[in-house]
Structures are given as structure tokens and as C-alpha cells.
Specification:
- It is globular and about 80 Å long.
- Helix content is about 35%, strand content about 25%.
- Strand 3 and strand 4 form a beta hairpin.
- The chain has a 5-stranded antiparallel sheet.
């Protein structure tokens, strides 16, 4: 560089720029980590409803239970909500972000003036679990 000593030019040299393909590699890798989706339920809705109707069949995450309580739903209210779901409420089936082999069925269910986002999966023990319940 004109007007600078060799030492000054070495000290002020910019850091090398990573090749552009590495940016695309990271974008492609993140796309592969996204969930897969399909428009057909993975789990039988009647089986989910049957389980939730049984005395020991009530299974949901703490966060889903917190939302249920905030909506004024007690245990019986959650069971009634699950029993009210119809096939027409089905929205999509998707894989879990952390495990592409684990499927989750999502329903949009009318509840009063609200539409609720209700998501089920099946655990390794074979029981269905309500994993997400929130306002849509």
C-alpha cells in the first residue's frame, strides 16, 4: 500500500472473508432441520378421544395445562374439549423439531369465541399426550 511501511500494511490488512458457499451450507442445513408436514392425521382421533375419556387417560404437558386453566378449563373441560374435536378440525401433521421421527397432529378447534391450537403426539409408552394448547 503506498505511503505505509510493510509492518503497517500487515497490521491493517482486513481479515480474510469466508467463501460464500459456507453461508449457503448453513442455510441448507437449517432448512433440513425444519419439521416435515403432511395433510393427513398420523394418529386416529377416535383413539385419542377414547384414551382421554378413560380415568387414567388424561395426559398433557404442564404448559398445556396452564393454558387450559387460564381459559377456565378444568380437567373435565379439557376432556370435553378433546371429545368435541372432529375430523374437520384437523389442520396438519408435523414432525417434532428435535426428532423427525416423532409425529404431532394439530387441530384448530372452536371454543366459544376463540379458535384453539391443539397438538397431540404419542409417547414411547403408547399413550397420547396433549402437548400444546393455545389460542390460535
Amino acid at each position: 500500500m503506498p505511503g505505509l511501511s510493510k509492518r503497517e500494511s500487515k497490521l491493517s490488512a482486513p481479515e480474510p472473508i469466508a467463501p460464500k458457499f459456507s453461508v449457503w451450507y448453513h442455510i441448507d442445513a437449517s432448512i433440513k432441520e425444519r419439521a416435515m408436514e403432511k395433510r393427513k392425521p398420523t394418529y386416529d382421533l377416535a383413539s385419542i378421544q377414547k384414551q382421554f375419556g378413560e380415568p387414567n387417560g388424561y395426559r398433557l404437558t404442564v404448559s398445556a395445562q396452564d393454558v387450559a386453566f387460564s381459559l377456565g378449563l378444568d380437567r373435565g373441560g379439557v376432556v370435553a374439549l378433546v371429545q368435541s374435536i372432529e375430523r374437520r378440525h384437523f389442520y396438519k401433521s408435523m414432525t417434532a423439531y428435535r426428532d423427525h421421527r416423532l409425529w404431532q397432529d394439530v387441530y384448530h378447534v372452536d371454543h366459544g369465541k376463540l379458535t384453539l391450537y391443539v397438538k397431540f403426539t404419542r409417547g414411547p409408552d403408547g399413550y397420547y399426550l396433549l402437548i400444546s394448547l393455545k389460542e390460535k
